[in-house]
Amino acid sequence: MKTPIDTSILNDVRTSQNIDVYLQHMLPKIELTREIAKQNMHDCNDDTQFYYDRNTAYPKYTVGQKVLLYDPVTKKGVCKKL
After folding, report:
1. CA 48/CA 53 separation, integer angstroms
2. What's residue 73's pLDDT?
3. Contact in structure between 12 and 25 (CB atoms under 8 Å)
4. Would 30 be classed as within a structural domain?
5. What is the pLDDT of residue 12?
6. How far apart are CA 26 and CA 48, in angstroms?
7. Angle 37-1-38 (CA atoms, 0-180°, nearest 5)?
8. Contact at 8 Å (CB) between 15 and 6?
9. Domains in the chain: how many in total?
10. What is the span of the domain harbouring residue 19?
11. Which strand (E) or helix (H) includes residue 30?
12. In whole angstroms, what is the distance from residue 82 CA to residue 63 CA?
Protein backbone atom coordinates (compact mmCIF):
# COMPACT_ATOMS: atom_id res chain seq x y z
CA MET A 1 0.00 0.00 0.00
CA LYS A 2 1.42 3.34 -1.02
CA THR A 3 1.04 6.34 1.22
CA PRO A 4 0.58 9.88 -0.13
CA ILE A 5 4.21 10.76 0.59
CA ASP A 6 5.37 7.69 -1.38
CA THR A 7 3.21 8.69 -4.32
CA SER A 8 4.55 12.23 -4.40
CA ILE A 9 8.16 11.01 -4.14
CA LEU A 10 7.74 8.39 -6.88
CA ASN A 11 6.16 10.93 -9.24
CA ASP A 12 9.05 13.35 -8.64
CA VAL A 13 11.65 10.66 -9.40
CA ARG A 14 10.11 9.92 -12.79
CA THR A 15 9.91 13.57 -13.85
CA SER A 16 13.28 14.80 -12.54
CA GLN A 17 16.04 15.19 -15.11
CA ASN A 18 18.90 16.14 -12.83
CA ILE A 19 19.68 14.63 -9.42
CA ASP A 20 20.72 18.01 -7.96
CA VAL A 21 17.42 19.57 -8.95
CA TYR A 22 15.63 16.57 -7.50
CA LEU A 23 17.51 16.87 -4.20
CA GLN A 24 16.79 20.59 -3.93
CA HIS A 25 13.14 19.84 -4.61
CA MET A 26 12.97 17.01 -2.07
CA LEU A 27 14.78 18.63 0.89
CA PRO A 28 11.82 20.82 1.96
CA LYS A 29 9.48 17.82 1.72
CA ILE A 30 11.81 15.70 3.84
CA GLU A 31 12.15 18.47 6.44
CA LEU A 32 8.36 18.90 6.56
CA THR A 33 7.90 15.15 7.02
CA ARG A 34 10.47 15.15 9.81
CA GLU A 35 8.78 18.06 11.59
CA ILE A 36 5.37 16.36 11.33
CA ALA A 37 6.81 13.12 12.76
CA LYS A 38 8.51 15.07 15.57
CA GLN A 39 5.28 16.88 16.46
CA ASN A 40 3.33 13.60 16.41
CA MET A 41 5.91 12.03 18.72
CA HIS A 42 5.61 14.92 21.21
CA ASP A 43 1.79 14.75 21.10
CA CYS A 44 1.87 10.99 21.71
CA ASN A 45 4.30 11.42 24.61
CA ASP A 46 2.04 14.04 26.19
CA ASP A 47 -1.00 11.77 25.90
CA THR A 48 0.88 8.81 27.32
CA GLN A 49 2.21 10.87 30.23
CA PHE A 50 -1.30 12.15 30.99
CA TYR A 51 -2.72 8.63 31.20
CA TYR A 52 0.25 7.40 33.23
CA ASP A 53 0.10 10.27 35.74
CA ARG A 54 -3.66 10.52 36.18
CA ASN A 55 -3.86 7.95 39.01
CA THR A 56 -0.71 8.89 40.86
CA ALA A 57 -1.00 10.06 44.43
CA TYR A 58 1.76 12.00 46.09
CA PRO A 59 2.41 11.09 49.72
CA LYS A 60 1.41 13.65 52.32
CA TYR A 61 3.73 13.63 55.29
CA THR A 62 3.51 15.85 58.31
CA VAL A 63 6.37 17.02 60.47
CA GLY A 64 7.07 14.43 63.17
CA GLN A 65 5.33 11.58 61.38
CA LYS A 66 7.19 8.24 61.47
CA VAL A 67 8.02 6.70 58.11
CA LEU A 68 10.00 3.65 57.01
CA LEU A 69 13.38 4.39 55.48
CA TYR A 70 14.83 2.02 52.88
CA ASP A 71 18.57 1.51 53.40
CA PRO A 72 20.09 -0.83 50.77
CA VAL A 73 23.47 -1.07 52.55
CA THR A 74 24.23 -4.65 53.59
CA LYS A 75 25.51 -5.29 57.08
CA LYS A 76 28.98 -6.62 57.71
CA GLY A 77 29.10 -10.41 57.49
CA VAL A 78 26.00 -10.69 55.26
CA CYS A 79 26.40 -11.45 51.58
CA LYS A 80 24.06 -9.43 49.37
CA LYS A 81 24.10 -12.13 46.71
CA LEU A 82 22.13 -14.53 48.89
Report:
1. 9
2. 82
3. yes
4. yes
5. 59
6. 33
7. 0
8. no
9. 1
10. 4-53
11. helix 19-53
12. 37
